[in-house]
Amino acid sequence: MATTFARRLVEALGSDVARTEPADLAAYGYDGYKEDGNPSAAIVPRDVRDVATAVRIARDCDEPVVPRGAGTGLCGGAVPVKGGLVISFARMNRLLELDVPNRRARVQPGLINLELSNAIARHGVFYAPDPSSQKISTIGGNVGTNAGGPHCLSYGTTTNHILGLQYVDEAGEVHRTAHSDAGYDITGLLVGSEGTLGLVTEIDVRLMRLPEAVRVCVATFADVESASEAVSAIVGAGIVPVALEIMDRLITQAVEAHYHAGIPADAGAVLLVEIAGVHDDMDDGERLIAQIARDHGALSWRAARSAVERAALWAARKGAAGAMGRIAPNYYIQDACVPRTKLPQVMLEVERIVRDRRLQVGNVFHAGDGNLHPLLLFDRRDAREVQAVIDAGSEILATCIAFGGTISGEHGIGYEKRQSLSLVFSTQDLAAMARVRDVFDPMRAFNPDKIFPTGAVCGEVTGARAFDAA
Length: 470
Description:
By secondary structure, this protein is an alpha+beta fold. The chain folds into four domains: about 1-90, Uridine Diphospho-n-acetylenolpyruvylglucosamine Reductase, domain 2, CATH 3.30.43; about 95-210, 2-Layer Sandwich (Uridine Diphospho-n-acetylenolpyruvylglucosamine Reductase, domain 3); about 215-325, 2-Layer Sandwich (Alpha-Beta Plaits); about 330-470, Alpha-Beta Plaits. The protein is built from 16 helices and 19 strands. Strands 12, 13, 14, 15, 16, 17, 18 and 19 form an eight-stranded antiparallel beta sheet that branches. The longest helix is centred in the last third of the chain and has 20 residues, at about 385-400. The chain is globular, with a radius of gyration of 22 Å. It starts with a helix and ends with a helix.
């Protein structure tokens, strides 16, 4: 059937769109999760008509369909675990319409997140959601996982900036939604659905006006716990900065060695604070936040002196994961959320969990909204460390849930966290979600084996097991 399937795709779309050779398909068998898959075919569509045609052919041939953005996902959402057709939106990457007066734009899903803001900055507007991967991740992929980023504390996550969508359903029919439509919010339902309900082919996004003034400040603390307490105090005082980000000593040392952003590498923890607004409010806003930080143990405080220095600080923060290669050959990044006031206790538990298993951890997180990203460091050639990372990751998720949190803040559920979903939702809850999926995709052809529970672990760790068995 796969041979017939591939032939039909080539006949309908041409060899420029359809990919059928094993060497070509190898590029579509994995994402940032590192779990290999073997698609039967792949396409790089030119437009929505190509997508709809391919979906109809896949349906006729009983092949599943997996959408793919830039492949930066960390939970296996783009991995074709059941083979089938991978649809890469790399070619559908244009800004289609820009409406500055109404602050909205229409884009294709393959448009890189940061490229949108760069393209429209001269009009005084920007697109707010900014995951750390924004230099490479696509807006379509961000829609799939409801991505957030450092600035979601003030601006909200992707779902708060999506006004409407065009999508292809399981029958290959094209539909359009609008956030303003009466009745059920289909737009909101599709955001965060990880390609299991439909294939998004156009996105109407909300734009924001560039602020008159921006200030980025750096505070140092003796430890992560005191920095976390300062964050809770800042927000508890009714102040909502644009961003509140924490990096621990291990992360800070790694990023400073790479980026030379002027971050004190000897601090137990660093708090990055961004405020934005009108020029006249900047000094008073900084003064108030700085005082709260000092009241909760801040050892130092300084503001970036220029736009170049601000950019360097953010480059260091968003490049934290990559910088960990200086310390260990492998890392496993977790993604969980807890109530902001529980951060100090949860961070103490994270430290205990990794200490008990003789591991190193680098903590970097969106402290303002309680979104944790512990990076568990290991060497995949060491079987003890591999198992320790698996166990530690599971215990960290369970701990976050015990403190009233959840198992994902922005990376999605994908393939990796399917089993953990049952720790958050009851059987009845999961059944209700499954019924929604059945309405959109009764044959479960769109991105199968994603979101709903199954046994799965970090793809890199799974790969280590295979490495050790070889």
